[in-house]
Amino acid sequence: MKNRKSFAQAVSCLLFVSLFMSMALGADDKAKTAYKTNCVSCHGSDGGGTPLGKSMQAADLRSQQVQSKPDAELAQVITEGKNNMPAFKNTLNPEQVQGVVKYIRELGKNKQSSEK
Hints:
Elements: H1 2-38, H2 40-43, H3 51-55, H4 64-67, H5 71-80, H6 94-115
């Protein structure tokens, strides 16, 4: 009887961890999809910019200039737009905007690790 209870607790724990991990991965996938759908055409898949984006002076999202900005400022630029960048307030909800900000942070980390 005691072994069954321990087994049931272990299975419950594993299910909880699996559910938590799938939710976390799902959020990252949604952010990546939002970035690819709305940002890649100008900023490129690595955040460094495409020829089109560079012709419109799109920022290198991996740059120190962008990476040093607070999350709130990046979210505002995504939401309201700036210079040649359009506003995405009617396209992305606040959760998606925060996901894109998080993804931009990852792009900056990827650049730093590739330079080492």
